[in-house]
Amino acid sequence: MTKLTQEHLALAANTIRGLAMDGVQAAKSGHPGAPMGLADIATVLWLKYLKHNPADSKWADRDRFVLSGGHGSMLLYSLLHLAGYNLPLDELKRFRQVGSLTPGHPEYGHTDGVEVTTGPLGQGIAAAVGMALAERMAAARYNTGDDPVVDHRTWIFCGDGDLQEGISHEACSLAGHLKLGKVVLFYDDNGITIEGHTSLSMSDDAKKRFQAYNWNVLEIDGHDFDQIDRAIRKAMRPSDRPTVVICKTHIGKGSPNKQDSHEAHGAPLGEEEVKLTKRALGMPEEALFHVPDDVRALFAERAAKMKRAQGKWKRIFKLWTKANPQGAKQWKAAHDDTLPADIESVLPAFDASKPLATRSASGVVLNALASAVPHLVGGSADLAPSNMTWLKDMGEIKPGDFAGRNIHFGIRELAMAAVMNGVQAHGGFRIFGGTFFVFSDYCRPAMRLAALMGLPVIYVYTHDSFYVGEDGPTHEPVEQIAALRCMPNMTVIRPSDPTETAAAWVAALKNRKGPTALLLTRQNMKVLNRNAYPPAASLEKGAYTLWQNGLGTPDLTIIATGSEVEIALEAAQQIEDRSVRVVSMPSWELFAKQNQTYRDRILDPACPRRLIVEAGSAFGWERFATRQTAMITLDTFGASGPFSELAKLFGFTAENVLAKARELLAR
Fold this sequence. Notes:
Layout (H helix, E strand, L loop, with lengths): L5 H22 L5 H17 L14 E4 L5 H11 L5 H5 L29 H20 L11 E6 H5 L1 H13 L4 E7 L2 E2 L2 E2 L8 H7 L3 E6 L3 H11 L7 E6 L22 H11 L11 H31 L1 H12 L19 E2 H15 L3 E5 L3 H4 L18 E3 L4 H14 L3 E7 L3 H14 L4 E5 L17 H6 L5 E3 L4 H13 L5 E4 L4 E2 L18 E5 L7 E5 L3 H9 L7 E5 L3 H5 L3 H7 L6 E5 L14 E5 L10 H8 L3 H12 L2
Parallel strand pairs: 1-2, 2-3, 3-7, 6-7, 9-10, 9-11, 11-12, 12-14, 13-14, 17-18, 17-19, 19-20
Antiparallel strand pairs: 4-5, 8-15, 16-18
Helix pairs in contact: 1-2, 1-3, 1-10, 2-3, 2-9, 5-7, 5-15, 7-15, 11-12, 13-18, 15-16, 19-23
C-alpha cells in the first residue's frame, strides 16, 4: 500500500478543486466554493477511512456518506468519479445538463453512489440520522457474536445553511438523545452564505449548541491534514455520543480573488479566475477536468482495499448465515421488503354492529401486520395514543437501546419525516410515522423528497377533517388533502370504514415505488357489512361502486371519500324513484392507475349528474366533474365546537346530501 503523504493528499484535494471549478464553469452555474473548501477533509476521509466498495454501491454494511449541502454537489460527483463509481468523467463535464447523471443537487436512485437526495438544506442531516438509527436497529437485530454483520458509520458534511434551518435542531437533538454514537458530522464553518458573511443573521455558538445536544465536539483547521486525520480517528472511537467536527475552512480555497467571498458561493468563478486558481494550486492552467495519474492510482488502490474489505465481510456473513438460519431468512425478507404471500389473511375482521374510528381500526390492523412483517417499524410525533401507532409488546427504541420497534420521534414532525426517509433509504426496514393530518404541513418538505426518491414510507395521518371539532380551525385540516394530492408520486388513501382501512394498509405496504399517506378519522364510523357490499379489497383500484339501486347507467353518481361515504350511502338509499350509484373513492392516485375501461365503468360518462362529497377543499375535484356536478365540500378553515354540530353547520349530513341529490335529479 502506498503511504499517503501530505503531497499525495494535497494533489488529490486540488484535483477535486479543479474538477469542481471546471464543472461549474462548464455549466455556467453552480456552487464551486463549498467543494473547494471541503476538498481537504473529503480527501482524507475517502482515501483513508470511508468504508465502501465502488464496485458494489449497495453493499449492506458500507458506510453512508451524506452531503447535506447538496448545492455543493460537484464535491460528491468528483469523489464518486475518482473513487470508481459508475460516473464517467464525461458526466462531470455535463454537470447540470438535461439527462446527465450530475444534476444540480444529488438525486437518490439517479446517480450511482448517492445515498439520499439532498436539496433543501438540513434535510441531509436528518436523513443521515435516520440512516444511523437504522444501522443501530439492524445491529441490535442481527449481530450475534464477535464478528458483527452490521457495523458501519454515517458521515455527514454540512454547512452554515444546514445548521440555520430548524430541521437541523430537531434531528441533532434526536440523535444526541438516542446516543447515535456512530454519526460523524463535519460542519463546514466558512462563515459565508449567499448574501455575505454569516454574521448578518447568525451569531450561534456551535460548540455550545452541540454540547447541549449531548454530542462530542471537536474543532479543527479544515485545511490541516494532520488535524483532519486526528479528528476522524477520535470520532471513530467507541462512544455513545454523536460527534461534530467544527472545521474552520475557506470557501473557494485557493482562488486568489474570491476565496472567503460570497462570490465563490453560488456562481462560477469565471474563466480567468479558474486559470489563476489552478496556477496558485500548481495545477495545469489550460487542462480542463484534469486528473493526474497519481491521483487515479491512489483512489484505485483504495478501491481495491475496500473490495477486499467487502470480501472479508461476505465471508463473515456466510458463516453468520449458517449459524443463524432464521436470522438470515429475516435479513433477506427485510432487505428485499418481502411481504407474506397471504398478507390479507392476517387482517382482522370488524364487527358490523360496533362503529369504530378508522384511526382505531388502523391501530388494530397495524399490530396484526407488524406480527407478520418483522421489518415493519415506526412511531409517532408524540401522538401514539391518538394516532394508534403503538406496536404492542414489540419494545421501544431508547437511548442506546435499539432492539425495539417503536420509535419516539418527539414533537418533531419535520425531523420525523426526514428521519423516516433515511431509515427507508438505508434499507432493511419498512417505516411508518404518525401525527395529526393538519401537521402534515410540518412534514411536507421531507414528504416531497420521499416522493421524489420513490421511498415507500407510510404516513399515518389521523384527525383527518373538521370532525376534530372542539380543537377548532387550527387543528382542522381543510386544504391539506388537496396539497397532498397535487404532489407527484404521493399516494393518498382515505378509507371509509374499518374494513377499508385494513385494505388501505395492505395497499400501502404493496406500494414500493413511493410514499403513501393514510388519512384516518377521529370519530367512529359504521362498519359496512361486506356480505351486503363489495369487498373492501376493491380499495386497491382507488374507487369502486359501493351501492346502486338498479342496473346500468345511473341517473346520479355520488362520489365520496372517507367518513363522507357513510352519509352518501344513507342519503342514496332514501331515493327509490331514480337510479343512484354511490362510489367510494379512497384514492385518486390508485384510481388513475386503472385502465380507461374500468374508470368508465365506475364513473359512467353517460351519467350526466354527479355529486361529490368530501370534508375538505373542493380544489382538484373538477377533474371528476361533468356539466351537471354539485359539490359538498369545505372551503373555509372550519370552526370550534362539537363535531356533530359542525357537521350540520357545514352541510355534512345525510339530509343535506339527499337534498343536493334531489336538486340534481330535478334538472
